[in-house]
């Protein structure tokens, strides 16, 4: 079971196991905001519900991360697993300017693509095909981007994620 950890300013900080979350709560470093009553933790002296969302009591400064490394998974996540050319479900990535024509592996040159669009485009440019992108690809921003577990959030997290997911 996963637990969402919120910083003292209520921004998502991490996703941890329920054991780590329970340890933070029992040591007084965090408070429980949401819990799961269906599967309680039975201890020697008490019975506690499993925490699903906890809030740290002290603010933790996170290092400023300006660099989001390019990856296939990251491009698919940024584009919402939809093709940048036709809008269908995407399972591959494509270089907008092909690598054989000087295109590089960058956030601005990669886009999620469905198998058929990727095959038709091959090593041609958009101008040669007369295609247009549905959106302008850019580098992802925000601290929530680095929490990979937010790709599949639990239902109990939705009131605490605002626009993070």
Automatic annotation (TrEMBL):
* Statement: the UniProt record of this protein carries the keyword tRNA processing: no
SMART domains named among the record's database cross-references: HNHc
UniProt keyword terms in alphabetical order: Endonuclease, Hydrolase, Nuclease
Gene Ontology MF: a single term: endonuclease activity
- Which residue range or ranges hold the HNH nuclease domain? 70-119
At the top level of its lineage, which domain of life is listed? Bacteria
Q: What is this protein called?
A: HNH endonuclease
Where does this protein come from, organism-wise? Paeniglutamicibacter terrestris
Q: What is the lineage of its organism?
A: Bacteria, Bacillati, Actinomycetota, Actinomycetes, Micrococcales
């Amino acid at each position: 079971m996963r637990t969402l950890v919120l910083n003292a300013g209520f921004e998502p900080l991490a996703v941890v196991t329920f054991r780590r979350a329970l340890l933070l709560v029992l040591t007084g470093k965090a408070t429980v905001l949401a819990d799961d009553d269906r599967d309680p933790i039975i201890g020697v002296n008490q019975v506690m519900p499993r925490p699903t969302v906890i809030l740290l009591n002290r603010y933790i400064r996170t290092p400023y991360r300006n660099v989001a490394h390019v990856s296939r998974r990251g491009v698919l996540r940024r584009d919402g697993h939809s093709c940048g050319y036709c809008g269908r479900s995407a399972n591959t990535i494509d270089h907008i300017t092909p690598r054989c024509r000087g295109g590089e592996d960058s956030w601005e040159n990669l886009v999620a693509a469905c198998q058929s669009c990727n095959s038709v485009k091959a090593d041609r440019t958009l101008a040669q095909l007369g295609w247009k992108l549905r959106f302008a690809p850019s580098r992802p921003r925000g601290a929530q981007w680095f929490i990979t577990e937010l790709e599949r959030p639990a239902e109990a997290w939705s009131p605490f994620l605002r626009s993070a997911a």
